[in-house]
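I had to read the description of the data format several times before I understood it. The format is easy to grasp once an entry is in front of the reader. For illustration, here is how one protein appears when written out as sequence plus structure tokens:
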Amino acid sequence: MDFSLAVDQFLSFLRFERSLAVNTLESYSFDLARYALFMDEEQGIDEADAVSRDAVRAFLNHLAQHQLKPSTQARMLSAVRMFHRFLLREKLCSLDPTEDLELPKRRRALPVFLNLTEMLDLLNAPDRSTPLGLRDAAMLETLYATGIRVSELIGIALSDLRLDSGLLRVFGKGSKGRVVPLGQSASKVLSHYLEVGRPSLDKGKSDALFLNLRGTGLSRQGIWKLVKRYALAAGIQKELSPHKLRHSFATHLLEYGADLRSVQEMLGHADIGTTQIYTHVSRERLRGVVKSAHPRAGRKPG
């Protein structure tokens, strides 16, 4: 089967059968386009069922020679492996050339997060006397109170908010919905934003919870810029992004006694292994505290 046709069928399967998010589909499309180009130009292979194990190994060597990070290599091999398994399952080829191939060793970096003082400084940075400042305060409070992704934040409609019960409905990857608690502080700021801030921005164009000056929903890039701006205003030295607020949410929950399963559910992780990275963060932080404070753990005497 022609390579491009095989890739198109695989992407259609992911889109309609697996209901993967647009960003994930774009990632698969990019990785497989690079894979198909390599097979065509370097291996002389233009049909997906003609790929051999040696050809896949050559592709992995090609990635390593271009000094791609192990995490990137692992992601691309994962896409290639899923692609060939799909072809085999659909009987579009007779073998899987990726079978038994090992993923590149991947060292998972610990996520960056804000400590509690930094987090409070960030939340207090917006000027809550203006409609935009009140919106931004509500937005930051919501991100920290719920740990939701930016894509989930911009997708929140007014009907998803249940302030009377302190709950928020969000739709995550693959359009999977979940309900997360807001907490008292976020609920209070959101209520004030809905009463005072949002009506000043509403032009009847959108039912999105968070609106811009044009009366339409905020963009991912717009939220990213706002978080960076308020981090600078709060004097935070760390490189900050909206996703790091999600890291902060999860880390603080575990540090204050939440169980891993509850954090997994609130983050919307399908695999608890993804959530476990935050237990490593907590352990590393405790080691740092002990090392700096305990007289027999390496602290220099004052």
Remarks:
- The mean pLDDT is 85.
- The radius of gyration is 23 Å.
- The CA atoms of residues 205 and 275 lie 37 Å apart.
